[in-house]
Specification:
Blueprint lengths: L7 H25 L7 H21 L7 H8 L14 H16 L5 H27 L2 H12 L2 H7 L5 H18 L7 H11 L8 H15 L6 H9 L3 H18 L7 H13 L6 E3 L2 E3 L8 H9 L2 H16 L7 H13 L19 H23 L5 H23 L13 H8 L14 H7 L9 E4 L7 H6 L7 E3 L3 H7 L2 E5 L5 H11 L6 E5 L2 E8 L3
Parallel strand pairs: 3-4, 3-5
Antiparallel strand pairs: 1-2, 5-7, 6-7
Helix pairs in contact: 1-5, 1-6, 2-4, 4-5, 5-6, 5-8, 6-17, 6-18, 8-9, 9-12, 10-16, 15-17, 15-18, 16-17, 17-18, 22-23
């Protein structure tokens, strides 16, 4: 029974299942993020988002008007990173509004959870979208499995728990793809495509890659549907195939970006140029890959492929491989949906094959590839289950699907449980888990998020000998988040940040090193200053050291 032929009661039930899966995904993210440390970039986005939210609320309450000076003080400035103008404001504004409502006004969640909730909710939306897409193209079994597999991707779950843009970008990218696919039915006003793409642009610049996938798909599908005739007749038919979709993207996309980003309201051409220039000339941060520290191009062309291969559960990858084979062998779904999913994944991951695109952060930059993998895995798992049922006539298809697809989902459950809260250190079975990946020289973490696991020990060791005394701590990569840790009550006010580099180390009584390959020198600086090479505590994930705490000998 397809979605179009289902009874109203069946359609309602299926929609309720999708909503329930989205809610479960959101709750799962909120639960898991409680033990995840505060990322360095989050602090910047939270501060900017709070200012953006204040500006919009002030506009609504007529506390201020629309003046260039006022907007610049909130959203821009002369510097390339003033008020985080290098990143569009959609998610940051939601972060700020969530904090003001849920934390400051209602007090129902703590500050960090309030800032992170919009990203968690967006992950729930992504799960609902994958469910809806699979339900319309394949069936209920594939829809449930695809939704669960996306929900239980360890790295995606981790990123969805941060007040950052990567998980929301995946959601809005997928929402645009879904809206575009539905708009190919010839509807008169496909406004959703352009608005959703505009919101994706308003979240992160990587949404600029999406038209390459949509444009290629449009040309291929229009070419297939072209009538017989002269080349002029065929060209006109291709251009006019679903021309309203193109207009929606070309007009409503940029217009939506303009509306949601006040910084563009004055001198938009100059500001858009500044925004894009920042990212086309982006600094190349350090990143460890296969035993080397990379901080300048050319980067290995296979970074994105190998990293994805190592950061998606192996069972999901195996099922996706089967699903890809099924897609190639079976008749195509309506409007070339499989082709669209493949092009979407290629547009997301393709730039990282060039060797010049910054690779810091790895999988978070090409997260839109993940829905395609999960959809393929769902199709592959259900197909394999039905093949088992066909081979063993005594086994009903439903039982076979529950067992085979259930095993694939269960594998993701186990991997997620193992990965959290240090999912950046986690790698799948193909890499040998976290220990195997460490031996291979894969990146262990970034942004200083692992610091939270050390805080209880640090507080214990840093307790002052006399009441009111202060202890200086070299907080390393967690320095930007130190104030928030104190506001949350995780660190007492007597533990003070000692400062940066050698000056901070010499001043400190406790010192932390959050392990990345290019941070090794901090260990040496501490050894020299403290006169010891022995950490007082080492935080490990699956046996892999990720944070070392040193205590200056008395």
């Amino acid at each position: 029974m397809t979605e179009t032929t289902a009874t109203p009661r069946t359609r309602w039930t299926r929609r309720a299942i999708g909503a329930a899966l989205a809610l479960i995904a959101t709750i799962l993210v909120l639960v898991e993020q409680r033990n995840v440390g505060i990322a360095r970039d989050e602090v910047v986005y939270m501060q900017a988002g709070a200012g953006y939210a204040d500006w919009w609320l002030g506009l609504i309450t007529f506390d201020h008007g629309i003046r260039e000076h006022n907007i610049t003080l909130t959203f821009g400035g002369p510097g390339a990173t003033d008020h985080n103008r290098e990143h569009p404001p959609v998610m940051k504004t939601l972060f700020g509004l969530s904090d003001k409502l849920l934390h400051r006004k209602l007090g129902v969640v703590d500050e960090v959870t309030a800032f992170r909730l919009p990203s968690a909710a967006m992950h729930g939306v992504a799960v609902a979208l994958v469910y809806a897409l699979a339900l319309g193209l394949w069936g209920l079994a594939e829809a449930i499995v695809a939704a669960l597999l996306l929900m239980l991707l360890p790295r995606a779950l981790f990123h969805a728990g941060l007040a950052c843009f990567d998980a929301p970008t995946m959601t809005l990218w997928l929402a645009t793809v879904y809206a575009y696919l539905r708009a190919l039915d010839g509807r008169r006003w496909p406004w959703q495509v352009g608005v959703l793409w505009g919101l994706a642009l308003g979240t992160k610049h990587t949404a600029l890659l999406l038209p390459f996938a949509l444009g290629a798909h449009y040309l291929i599908v229009a070419w297939r549907a072209r009538p017989a005739g002269t080349w002029r007749v065929q060209a006109a038919a291709i251009i006019g195939y679903r021309w309203r979709v193109i207009v929606s993207l070309a007009v409503l996309g940029p217009l939506t970006l303009y509306v949601v980003w006040p910084w563009l309201w004055f001198d938009p051409i100059h500001h858009v140029r500044d925004w894009l220039a920042f990212h086309t000339n982006h600094v190349h941060y350090n990143y460890e890959y296969l035993g080397h520290n990379w901080n300048a191009p050319r980067f290995p062309w296979h970074v994105a492929l190998v990293t994805t291969l190592f950061t998606v559960p192996a069972a999901t990858l195996a099922a996706a491989l089967i699903g890809a084979g099924v897609w190639l062998a079976r008749p195509r779904p309506a409007h070339g949906a499989v082709l669209l999913l493949a092009l979407s994944a290629a547009a997301s991951i393709g730039p990282f094959v060039l060797g010049t695109t910054p690779i810091f952060g790895a999988e978070k930059h090409w997260m839109p590839v993940l829905p395609t993998i999960c959809l393929a895995a769902a199709v592959g798992a259900v197909w394999a289950a039905r093949a088992v049922a066909a081979a063993i006539s005594a086994v009903p298809a439903r039982i076979a699907i529950a067992v085979v697809a259930g095993c694939v989902v269960l594998a993701s459950v186990v991997e997620t449980q193992v990965a959290e809260p240090y999912a950046l250190t986690w790698y799948n079975t193909l890499a040998g888990g976290a220990p195997g990946a460490a031996d291979l020289g894969m990146n262990r973490q970034f942004w200083g998020v692992a610091m939270r696991g050390v805080l209880p020990v640090l507080v214990e060791q840093g307790a002052p000998a006399t009441p009111g005394a202060r202890t200086y701590v070299y907080t390393h990569d967690a320095a930007p988040a130190w104030g928030m840790y104190q506001r949350l009550g995780l660190v007492p006010p007597t533990l003070l940040d000692a400062g940066w580099e050698q000056t901070g180390i010499d001043r400190s009584q406790l010192a932390v090193v959050i392990h990345e390959r290019h941070f090794n020198r901090h260990d040496y600086l501490i050894w020299k200053s403290y006169g010891t090479v022995q950490p007082s505590f080492v935080l490990r994930s699956a046996g892999v050291p990720i944070v070392s705490l040193y205590r200056r000998p008395r």
